[in-house]
Design brief:
Blueprint lengths: L5 H19 L11 H8 L10 H12 L21 H12 L7 H21 L7 E5 L2 H23 L8 E5 L4 H10 L2 E5 L9 H11 L3 E7 L11 H6 L7 E5 L24 E4 L12 E5 L2 H8 L7 H4 L20 H10 L1 H24 L3 E3 L7 E6 L4 H13 L7 E4 L2 E7 L7 H9 L3
Parallel strand pairs: 2-3, 2-4, 4-5, 5-6
Antiparallel strand pairs: 1-7, 6-7, 8-9, 9-11, 10-11
The chain binds pyridoxal-5'-phosphate.
The site of pyridoxal-5'-phosphate has 14 residues, from helix 6.
Family: Belongs to the group II decarboxylase family.
Protein name: Aminotransferase class V-fold PLP-dependent enzyme
GO molecular function: aromatic-L-amino-acid decarboxylase activity; pyridoxal phosphate binding; transaminase activity
Length: 452
């Protein structure tokens, strides 16, 4: 299995050939899931003592398994938060695997860590964070939010200890009621309490509402999470008014920009994020609007030392790594072994330059505005909220949840688009999450036309 044999050479050629075709294809169908019974019937048994051979295994992948996976980089994939990796980023993901890089420590992966850190520093600078801000690429926004909040609580514990005050019976984090579900997940893992504050009618969490929560819950609040682009609507909380409270209250400000913070690269949206420069930590997912493949979340601390103190693992077998001042990415989140998952984004950014990213993000915002105008213009459609970034939420007047379900299933069955139902305040709706530069206005209007 490990030697360079004729059989292994053929196998590598097969895999690279498949990858090449897939990366360069512009007409991969949307595809759709199949039932377990159907997949068992079509794929047969693939694991036995002798092996079925690489040719057969790859053929089963290509003809049975891959078609049962929705093509997430398809321009008609408009659900959840899509992904649209660049050709450079996708191709370089192969290099990361081929090179067996270890991205956890400086000792083992200095070159890879150096490049990842250059990207993190570049992002930090875009967000207005001070020199010295830094962090690590983790698996996704969920782990990024959890790791940031763990660091925040650790800082609060240390502060309480130094001040000689008792820790609260239960630590609390304040966030918008429209914050991403991963904040509640982090709270469950950390056994802390969420103070969910109702945002304004427009979905924006503002300083006055946060102030009321801080007054009510006092010193048990160790962090406030503001969202830089909510998942359902792409709404950016009023970061400046929330950050201003740091002058009066003692809390760690974390900005969850998993989806939206990338929009700061566009002059069309940059101003919406004023105040992010005062955050203690931020996240943004390159696998969302920074056009990198799954999976990568950039977690950046204003003071990386706070992350290191909270997360470094200690053991005899790790002393070689932890008894140095080297920058080891493992030290900055709840993980140890890690893929150098920031490298595909690094390679793409280095290849195409930042301006190409600014243009692609700007184009998505423009398209979102254009289709929102179209929805507003059409009889029988209601725009639920004005889009701020690339997400457009709308209702087809009179439709119940079952109507959206049937329409959405039909769209996918016909392989035209993947647009799932959503809801707001108990009312069913649907949404276009636009970020793929290959998505066109005509594709979107054709979907609207199909809604009768
Ligand atoms: C605002 C926000 N935060 C966090 C997450 C979680 O990110 P991930 O799915 O990468 O864990 C998402 C995912 O859509 C998100 O939109």
């Amino acid at each position: 299995m490990h030697d360079v044999t004729a059989e292994n050479q053929r196998l590598v050629d097969l895999v690279l050939d498949y990858s090449r075709r897939r990366i360069l294809s512009s007409d991969t169908p949307l595809d759709k899931p199949a039932s377990p019974a159907e997949l068992t019937r079509l794929a047969g048994r693939t694991i036995d003592e002798r092996g079925i051979g690489s040719e057969r295994a790859l053929s089963i992948f290509e003809h049975v398994l891959a078609p049962a996976c929705i093509t997430t980089d398809h321009p008609g994939y408009l659900s959840f938060i899509p992904t649209a990796p660049t050709k450079a980023a996708t191709a370089f993901d192969l290099v990361v695997s081929a090179s067996a890089l270890y991205g956890g420590s400086w000792l083992e992966g200095a070159g890879a860590v150096h490049a990842e850190n250059e990207v993190l520093a570049w992002l930090a600078n875009e967000f207005g964070l001070p020199d010295g801000a830094g962090g690590v690429f983790v698996q996704g926004g969920t782990l990024g939010n959890l790791s940031a909040l763990v660091a925040a609580r650790e800082a609060a514990r240390v502060r309480a200890g130094l001040a000689g005050v008792d820790q609260p019976p239960r630590w609390k984090v304040v966030c918008s009621a429209e914050a991403h579900s991963s904040i509640a997940s982090a709270a469950r893992v950390m056994d802390i309490e969420i103070v969910a504050v109702r945002p304004g009618e427009d979905g924006t969490l503002r300083g006055d509402a946060v102030r009321a929560a801080l007054d009510e819950h006092g010193a048990s609040v160790f962090a406030v999470v503001a969202t830089g682009g909510s998942t359902n609507f792409g709404i950016v909380d009023d970061l400046a008014s929330i950050a201003a409270l740091k002058a009066e209250y003692d809390f760690w400000l974390h900005v969850d920009g998993a989806y939206g913070l990338a929009a700061m690269l566009s002059p069309l949206a940059r101003d919406r994020f004023a105040g992010v420069e005062d955050a203690d930590s931020v996240i943004v997912d390159p696998h969302k609007w920074l056009f990198a493949p799954f999976d990568a979340c950039a977690l950046i601390y204003r003071d990386p030392e706070a992350g290191r103190r909270a997360h470094t693992q200690h053991a005899e077998y790790l002393d070689t790594l932890t008894e140095t001042a080297d920058w080891s990415p493992s030290d900055y989140a709840a993980h140890l072994t890690r893929r150098a998952r920031g490298l595909p984004f690094w390679f793409s950014l280095a290849s195409y330059g930042a301006a190409a990213y600014r243009d692609a993000i700007t184009a998505a915002i423009e398209l979102a505005r254009r289709i929102a105008d179209e929805i507003r213009r059409r009889d029988g459609f209601t725009l639920v909220r004005e889009p701020q970034l690339g997400i457009v939420v709308f209702e087809r007047d009179g439709w119940a949840k079952a109507d959206y379900d049937a329409w959405s299933a039909h769209l996918l069955d016909e392989q035209r688009a993947f647009v799932v139902p959503s809801s707001h305040d108990g009312r069913p709706n649907t949404r276009f999450a636009i970020l793929n530069p290959r998505t066109t206005f005509e594709q979107l209007t054709a979907i609207l036309d199909g809604m009768g």
